[in-house]
Design brief:
Helices cover about 65% and strands about 0% of the residues. The protein has about 180 residues and is mainly α. The chain has one domain. Helix 3 runs antiparallel to helix 4 and helix 4 packs antiparallel against helix 5. The mean pLDDT is about 80.
């Protein structure tokens, strides 16, 4: 069962990467059309991505028994709050607040890129990453490149796009004072 779930997560990662390419192309060619297609669902789709990423990371550590390294913990710090916050914002339809969540996936993507560089021996492994499992351990390796940091990077890029779309659809209203002020 563990292998099947890991295969599903890897497949979702590849599908997510295809979706990233499609979204970026649509943003470049037809931004308004993409806005119209996703109007009102940006936060819900971001929530689904964050929930799958959170559930997947918990599955990998708690069920599959993969020991998270230092970089994995930093990525989790950026992902886990998004699951709850996005659910709350989506439930209330608060696209305006989406702009305040954008730093989470942007920082998480940066950590994921750094983790990929460590994992592929492009950057020297930091001392704290050599304790325990270490950041260079590839717990999963599908399709020749799909590893845990690649899955995290895919989720963070998707979240950045969906949050940017949600935040960009909000009209700015000038601040006004109450009538009795």
């Amino acid at each position: 069962m563990t292998h099947a779930v890991i295969s599903i997560l890897a497949g979702l990662g590849v599908a997510g990467q295809a979706l990233v390419v499609l979204l970026v192309l649509l943003l470049l060619v037809a931004r308004d059309r993409l806005r119209t297609m996703l109007w009102g669902y940006e936060l819900w789709t971001a929530f689904v991505v964050a929930a799958i990423a959170t559930g997947g990371s918990l599955f990998l550590s708690q069920v599959a028994g993969f020991i998270p390294c230092e970089m994995c913990w930093f990525q989790r710090i950026c992902m886990y709050p998004l699951s709850l916050l996005l659910l709350f914002l989506a439930w209330h339809g608060d696209n305006r607040s989406a702009r305040y969540l954008v730093p989470f996936p942007v920082i998480g993507a940066g950590v994921s890129i750094y983790h990929l560089l460590i994992e592929n021996h492009v950057v020297a492994t930091p001392a704290q990453c050599q304790v325990g499992a270490g950041c260079t351990v590839k717990w999963i390796d599908y399709f020749g490149y799909m590893t845990i940091p690649t899955l995290a990077l895919t989720a963070f890029v998707l979240l950045t796009v969906f949050l940017a779309l949600a935040a960009s659809g909000v009209e700015e209203r000038p601040a006004t004072l109450p009538a009795d002020a």
